[in-house]
From TrEMBL:
Protein name, per record: DUF4238 domain-containing protein
Annotated InterPro entries: DUF4238 (IPR025332)
Source organism (scientific name): Dokdonia ponticola
Amino acid sequence: MNNLKKQQHYVWKYYLKPWTINDKIWCQRNGSTFNTSLKNIAQKRYFYESEQLNSDELAFLKYFLSGMHPTAQKSLNELLKLYNFTADSNGYIKKCGIEDFHSIIEKNFISILGKLYLEDLSFFENEKEKNDFAYFIGSQYTRTNKMRDNMIKANLKTPNLNPEKLSKVFNLILADTIGNWIFSKTKTRLLINNSDIDFITGDQPVLNTMGNHSYTKAPEKMELYYPISPKYAIYISEKLDGKIYISKDDVIKYNEFIKNHSKEQLYSRKENDF
């Protein structure tokens, strides 16, 4: 019998390791800065626990998916089927099934992350690795506490719809949609930071630099920024690729993006980096 994973992270713990020293990371939360272990940050109790959808919610989701591009509908309906399976189950699968799904996505990205640390972008030439990269980034963008709150706030005027339950499904749907965009249309640039200050990260580690950081409306354009260590970050757009060394002023600019897009937590390697 699998042990229940009670404290479920909405920012990948393995991803945060480059910001740790002696297994501790600096966290700034609500104006307070403290040094702690990764198990204490970016997590909530049973954050990914599935909830059964009522007939109106299922009808709403199926109607929504019917309006998506025909080539995307098969994978999106498979995600809905997966969610319904976990929601209709009991015990471990209900509480941890979606958490395990995210763990599979993360596991597929570990080797790619290792290549990025070596400034190796050759994985884009491998279709499977490129697909794993694309879906991972889409997932990291949508799976967070901030994105769930934004989806909950959506103005659903149809009766018998629970925005909190629907938000748990929509983060899977949007992850797939964004992943398809990344795979089919974008390029990735590796940002190399040789300045004397570090990249920081936060509880919304993937962000759209072209969008409103309050996420109150859908962005008209998307370019994604994702710091992967204190010295490396990736920038995903439809026009920029390759590697580039960036200045201290650019690092400060990108750190401000992280600060503005975070919900309540920022993370760094050193106390004075915030």
